[in-house]
Amino acid sequence: KGFFIMNDEDIIDLIFDRPDGLITLCEIKYTDSPFEVDKAYFEALTRKREVYKKQTRCNKHLHWVLISAHGLKKNAYSEMLIDQVVLLEQLFIENKKPKNNLLNKIK
User: Where are the beta strands (DSSP E) in 8-95?
Assistant: First the structure.
């Protein structure tokens, strides 16, 4: 819906502008253990959200989703900020039952 400028430190990894009045802001992290949100990271994500709202003049509700290889280590900071966690493996689940789609018809 338009172009906006953010500093490198305020870049949001993935954004879904949903038709139900929500905007999903995704933070993607690959770590060897569950990701932990500390005070500095909490402040950085809070700043990213505020910069996004200001730059886009967004009136929709914004929520954070963490996409992580090993989940989230819950603490007070994560409870206040992260609305949902998606494991990396959930994005690559192979469908065991083939669907009737164009690619199957081509084969």
Answer: 14-17, 22-29, 35-36, 61-68, 72-73, 82-87
